[in-house]
Amino acid sequence: KGFDDYHIVPGQGDYYDPRFRSKETNGKYIVEKGYATNLITDYAIQFLEQRDKSKPFALFVHHKAPHRNWMPPLDMLDLYEDVEFPLPETFRDDYSTRGRAAHEQQMSIEKDMEMCYDLKVTQIKPGMGYTHERNGDGFRHQLSRMSPEQREKWESVYNPRNEAMLAQHLTGDALLQWKYQRYIRDYMRVIHSIDEQVGRLLDYLEANDLMDNTMVVYTSDQGFYMGEHGWFDKRFMYEESFRTPLLVCAPGMKGGQKSDALVQNIDFAPTFLDIADAEKPQQMVGTSLLPIMSKGGKTPKNWRKYLYYHYYDCPAEHNVMRHDGVSDGRYKLLHFYDPKNSYSYDELYDLKKDPNELQNVVEDKKYAKHLARLQKQLDTFRQEQKVDEW
User: Fold this and answer.
1) Against a cut of 0.70, is the pTM above it?
2) Sheet order of strands, 307-311 included
3) Options 1.20.1090.10, 3.30.1120.10, 3.30.2020.30, 3.40.50.1980; which CATH number does 305-390 get?
4) On the CB side of 2, how many CA atoms lie within 13 Å of its CA?
């Protein structure tokens, strides 16, 4: 049947004056004045106010933020500007034990993060020595979507900062560190706006006596690189993007509990169907999380012992090689493959001894038993999911 009510954006949408389509617009995209995170929360609260209050509800609030290119709201442009964020421990990773994929990726803050599109330096001109600016016009188009008042405020903040940076003629490590600080500050501003709006939604539930009869799930579609390994974006099966936030608040559930059970986002839909006492379609491969929630976070017997992951969108943005893999929480096997050139290789990590995944131990004989076990499990997953590598 689909959703009874919806407000959706094209692709990942825009931060300022985004376009939405809904039943009210007969499926046509209409520009809404304002900031995306606030508007999406407005629509969520509007639904809660106008719903049939005699019936239960399921509400999915999916934010545009913090997608690239991290444009903060106008009232947060100064937030964190005086904060010097520490560089991640692996910021200058040289990938010395990794294979081709880590070396050939195009998600490096140093080499691939764009001065105009990502870092908002619109004063960049040909011949200034900055490369990889293919999306500069895209950012200028985003600015053109703003109202004159919005753009005046934006440029009054960013232009002086940009001009001060350009006047220093930064190069090498100094430029790299400037890029990181600009990136992380904008990212944190965008995250701060989400935090405020999620709080606003929770306040509404509290004020309208809905918290005692509502399960709230806060999650994402994946993790993200905040400078770890020198990267931004996601895609790889390395921990920073493989691990996904998941917080749950529900009636009768004691707060502060943690679970070590291996779960994935494929488990969300079965969980929601279980809550609604609805039957799970046969083609769903995930498992309801209610048994974990009802046992205080303890891992139920016969729960999965391994997680499977597969990234196959290559060639594409960021040039991350196709790979799949399996993890048991302690050991992780990644299999990278290039079907065009019939090329493949493996990486193996001991996450207890090497949580940052800097030491690929696939050729270390001490790990031969774990390598064989994980390779067997990887083959099992492929057979179950009918995965053909080539």
Assistant:
1) yes
2) 307-311, 323-327, 331-338, 343-350
3) 3.30.1120.10
4) 6
